[in-house]
Specification:
Elements lengths: L4 E7 L3 H13 L2 E7 L3 H9 L5 E3 L2 H5 L4 E4 L6 H8 L8 E4 L5 H8 L7 E2 L2 E3 L20 E4 L7 H13 L3 E4 L2 H28 L1 E2 L2 E2 L6 H7 L6 H10 L1 H23 L3 H22 L3 E5 L6 H12 L2 E4 H14 L7 H10 L2 E4 L6 E4 L2 E2 L7 H10 L3 H15 L4 E5 L2 H5 L5 E6 L2 H13 L7 H17 L12 E4 L5 H13 L2
Parallel strand pairs: 1-2, 1-4, 2-3, 4-5, 5-6, 8-9, 12-17, 12-18, 13-17, 18-19
Antiparallel strand pairs: 7-8, 10-11, 14-15, 15-16
This protein binds 2'-deoxycytidine-5'-monophosphate.
Length: 510
């Protein structure tokens, strides 16, 4: 990718700042990246982890030559930082941020914005429970929403440079006004956090026989309070910076709570049910918007699962995600970078930085890695062998499992692999385990490969298939096995069309 900036200063090298640095370094978007922060050991760690190339504890030297400055600290620190940076920002410099609030940030930054410096606010929706540069990854923004909220004075070309920065790190950019941003995110992010903090504190204070009652918490409590783990400095700043919208949200929530309170107080079951039904329907309609069915298909090589998954996805108008390609892509990237497959840590880093896309095309689905079509390259036998080895590494599996969950989170997907029904989506709507006689599977694999490699020996291919089966079924983490609630289908005696028909019927009758 072409170099977009000469020198970038990342102000605050945590999860978001560190991930942006790693992504820009990996994609060659910036010549030199400097990190600024207050704690030297954290900055040293940022350099050691490859998130920035140098660091400074002095704001002036961090920003003075930068043509891109990205504010990645808690939002209420921006005003003070700007005041200190103002004399040192060079004319033409572009300033952006990753803050979760836009109106207040724009006020604070604009108050100290020198002439000739352009501020284009942005907000990548990529934060999580874990904070700090130690959790940063070059792939963090991959397929994530990234909101850009230009201000009136923004030059369209400058705005475009910021938009394309986020697109280059694989974010999905939406441009909107700061007001719209703050209203939307107070509702879908800030208020739910406030409610979770309050709920956890309330329940945490409650004791029974000297034991806090949350000891007995089940999945419902855990699900509804997961976001209470947010970083205190960051969330306090967000609430204060988006004060008006958050207060409106709290008032609205209180109104709804009071309404339910009075229905309960008055034993009004009929109305209470109406309220709950309304919420149930709202949530279900949200799920039907954002959560569509997940079909998990697992099985060994040559069982026909990939062809079936592809055809099934086409028939049911679902997305098709072939997770084997992700293990293959990790192996491919490692070999490209001359990394020894035996070096588990380095291979795991490759997995962390992996940005992979499955793009439908006229010739079937294409696998894109960093914008390049690698579909054919990934099918080579040397990649198959290496993929089987990298798939054993717990770190690689943890990272790819997380990516697969994220990719399948909104459902509407047929996901195939070895551990989809057992590990990645144990709650998938439908699970199939596709298998066939190993000799037949070897023959299928041979036919797939022989056109490109006429010297291939059938017995060798059968042997390799058995060997990969052995690796997949016997590894310690997430071995290939049938989930208890999966439907097993043996395709030894079936044509692909028949097998497909059986799958479609089993899905439609459930
Ligand atoms: O399905 P495939 O042949 O493209 O998979 C490549 C390798 O990745 C194979 O050795 C099994 C492994 N794999 C895995 O361990 N877990 C998955 N979910 C998918 C593939």
């Amino acid at each position: 990718m072409e170099v977009r900036f000469d020198r970038m200063a990342i102000i605050g090298v945590g999860l978001l700042g560190g991930s942006l640095g790693k992504a820009c370094i990996e994609k060659g978007l910036v010549k030199r990246i400097v990190g600024f922060g207050r704690t030297e050991i954290k900055l040293k760690m940022a350099v050691a982890l490859g998130a920035v190339q140098e660091y400074s504890l002095d704001l002036k030297s961090a920003v003075k030559d930068a043509d891109l400055v990205v504010l990645c600290t808690p939002v209420l620190s921006f005003g003070d930082l700007m005041e200190r940076m103002k004399p040192h920002l060079k004319p033409g410099c572009i300033l952006t941020d990753v803050g979760s609030v836009k109106g207040q940030v724009i006020k604070d930054v604009s108050a100290h914005l020198p002439d000739g410096v352009h501020f284009v606010p942005s907000h990548p929706i990529a934060g999580g429970d874990q904070t700090g540069v130690e959790h940063s990854s070059a792939g963090l923004f991959c397929n994530r929403h990234c909101i850009v909220t230009p201000v009136e004075s923004n030059d369209p070309q400058v705005q475009e440079r910021v938009v394309s920065l986020w697109e280059s790190v694989d974010g999905r950019v939406t441009v909107m006004t700061p007001e719209e941003h703050d209203r939307i995110f107070s509702g879908v992010s800030h208020l739910p956090h406030v409610a979770a903090f309050a709920l956890v504190n309330l329940i945490g204070e409650m004791k029974s026989n000297g034991v806090t009652i949350d000891t007995f918490a089940g999945q419902g409590y855990m699900d509804s309070t997961r976001i209470a783990k947010g970083d205190p400095a960051m969330w306090s700043d967000i609430c204060l910076a988006n004060r008006d919208e958050v207060l409106k949200g709290i008032d609205g929530l209180q109104m709804h709570l009071n309404q339910m309170r009075s229905l309960i107080e008055n034993n009004n079951g009929a109305e209470l049910q109406k309220e709950i039904r309304k919420a149930q329907q709202q949530r279900e309609s949200l799920e039907s918007k954002v959560h569509q069915p997940i079909v998990a298909i697992d099985g060994p090589v040559g069982s026909g699962k990939s062809t079936l998954a592809k055809e099934l996805a086409r028939r049911l108008n679902l997305r098709h995600i072939e997770t084997g390609s992700m293990y293959r892509a990790v192996a491919y990237n490692a070999l490209q970078k001359n990394i020894d497959i035996a070096e588990e840590d380095k291979v795991t880093d490759i997995a962390k930085a992996l940005c992979i896309d499955f793009v439908p095309s006229d010739n079937g689905q294409r696998v894109m890695v960093k914008g390049n079509d690698v579909t054919q390259l990934l099918r080579e036998e040397k990649i198959s062998q290496a993929a089987s080895l990298v798939a054993k590494y717990p770190g690689v599996r943890a990272v790819l499992t997380e990516k697969q969950r994220e990719m399948g989170r909104t459902g509407n997907v047929v996901m195939e692999g070895r551990d989809i029904g057992t590990v990645v989506f144990p709650d998938a709507d439908k699970k199939f385990f596709i298998d066939a006689d190993p000799v037949l599977r070897g023959k299928r694999r041979y036919e797939e490969l022989v056109t490109k490699d006429p010297g291939l020996d059938l017995e060798d291919v059968i042997h390799q298939v058995r060997q990969r089966d052995h690796e997949d079924r016997n590894r310690e983490v997430a071995p290939l096995k049938q989930a208890e609630d999966a439907i097993a289908i043996d395709t030894t005696q079936l044509t692909i069309q028949d097998a497909l028909e059986i799958l479609v019927r089993l899905i439609q009758t459930s």
